[in-house]
Amino acid sequence: MADETANEATTEVEAPAAEATETPAADNADGTSEGTSEGTSEGTSEGTSSEDEAQAEIDLEAIKALVSKPAKDARYAATGKRKRSVARVILTPGDGTFWINGRDLDTYLDRSSDRALVLAPLVEAGAAGAYNVRIRVHGGGITGQTGAMRHGISKALAEIDPAVRTTLKGKGFLKFDTRQVERKKAGFKKARKKPQFSKR
């Protein structure tokens, strides 16, 4: 009887020891699997994010290329105004030819200051010589017509490449100047000039 009791006690003692040995192993197995899954998910997410960023950069470069390089058959039209003058401008990609009412720039505008005023938007946008320019302008004098042409060219360039809009706007090329000559009044020599006063 004493031997049987001792054997039972030994068996009971060994059983908890075996359970204690198995439990950490199970915990270790769970921990290893969790760590592996977490590492795999983190690696996958990092790889996906890097691929998304690369794709976004490619898309952005493609958009920039399309904006900065218009098609050869593209045609951009805009209307500019100044005083009583109205200019209808058409820009097409080309070698920089310039026609105003069927005449070239140098023939239509004698003064270099007027030519520089008309070409200013193209110079500021870095597009001098990149587009053929055709303009139909009427009304007003040379000052009004040059201002109208500059306004129309600026609007067309802003339509071609929105990136240069800020530059042209900062120079004031996109703003319509509403100033016009004041009308003559009845009884006055001009808008405000009164006739000479004489007592006798």
Task: Give an account of the 3D structure.
The chain is of the alpha+beta class and 200 residues long. The protein is 55% helix and 14% strand. The chain contains five helices and five strands; from the N terminus they run αββββααβαα. The chain has a five-stranded mixed β-sheet with strand order 1-2-5-3-4. Helix 3 runs parallel beside helix 4. The protein starts with a helix and ends in a 29-residue tail after the last helix.
Short description:
With 200 residues, this protein is an alpha+beta fold. It has helices at residues 2-68, 105-108, 112-124, 142-160, 165-171, and strands at residues 76-82, 85-93, 98-100, 103-104, 131-138.
Q: Secondary-structure map with pairings?
A:
Elements: H1 2-68, E1 76-82, E2 85-93, E3 98-100, E4 103-104, H2 105-108, H3 112-124, E5 131-138, H4 142-160, H5 165-171
Parallel strand pairs: 3-5
Antiparallel strand pairs: 1-2, 2-5, 3-4
> In whole angstroms, how far apart are the ends?
160 Å
CATH uppermost class of the largest domain: Alpha Beta
The spatial strand order of the largest sheet comes to 1-2-5-3-4
Our Rg estimate from Cα atoms comes to: 41 Å
Summary keywords:
single chain; 200 residues; Ribosomal Protein S5, domain 2; 5 strands; 14% strand; elongated
